[in-house]
Amino acid sequence: MKKLGFGCMRLPLLNGDDPTSVDLDQFCRMVDLFLERGFTYFDTAYMYHQNTSEVFVRKALTERHPRESYALASKLPTMSLKEPEDQPRIFEEQLEKCGVDYFDYYLLHNLNSVNYPIAEKLGSFSFIQEKQKEGKIRHIGFSFHDSAKLLDEILTAHPEVEFVQLQINYLDWEDEGIQSRKCYETAVKHGKKVIVMEPVKGGALARIPKEGEDLLRACHPQWSPASWAVRFAAGLDQVMMVLSGMSSLEQLEDNTSYMQESVSLNPEELTLLDQVTAIIHGAIAVPCTACGYCVEGCPKSIPIPNYFALYNAECQELTKGVNTHRFYYNNYAKSGGRASDCIGCRACERACPQHLEISRLLKDVAAAFED
Ligand code: SF4
Ligand code: SF4
Q: Which CATH architecture best describes the domain 4-282?
């Protein structure tokens, strides 16, 4: 299978304010071109486009193309589950909405410190294994947005899972909030294949600062900044698929042109991306090195470096308002203290080798992420 997957969460719209107004004509043309060029993987979910993505996938893909010509992935919305009976009901509804008898890939959607306990309590892992035995799912996995430590815990408890879907891109690779590299290495340690989501960080890496784009264009004039980001993710050994949420025929033409062959960046090209990362981080708000010395003595268990990493990303023009920052913040705040829980004891500041005024900076973090 070619490594580019069609993410069906940002489909072209007729009315930009209405996520359910998918431009079906354009979507059909995109699906046809994608398949014509030899790509086969489509990724949807119950919740995408306010629960309508699966229906549009049926209209554009499954009603118009032979079942063996594509692989379809969808996801169980763990965040909406209340009782075990919700699972078979939603699963059957998804098969019907998608117009298929089975899913090639099926994921527990968005496991994190909140949804993982729900999935355990309701037996979601056993449920997808049962469906796999019945032949209604070919491969089982989960998508994940949390720390590498929790990923390790889940993969240790559930060796039956065949793959994981992770947020991976070159800007988040060493980021302490998102932990792309650590999560990838955890998946590799457990021998799991990886599907990448957000390789272009919600479109942010398609619009990098001019200084960074000039560096990349000097090396490969024809490569778009977005293509560098996708190549970075696709070049990782254990990555079996890189999803791109394509919103227009033009984006699809660009992606499918350079993803025809298997792509990976050479050491010089990876060094260039390090330089671009440094440029993007140039105007960093909090120069925290994520050493973690401050964390142990905090009486409120505030995950300080994680919050600073998310805050730094939020402060940059490029990644400002990328909604995953607040999402990750809320995840961390479920298992640790919130930034606003800080009581100003300054134990952390005494431990910080960078002499940061942590208690003051946490007020900025709280203002950015808390209501
Ligand atoms: S000043 Fe705030 S963040 Fe620092 S140790 Fe005390 S409570 Fe924790
Ligand atoms: S001790 Fe200072 S530099 Fe180290 S993680 Fe904490 S805030 Fe960041």
A: Alpha-Beta Barrel (3.20)
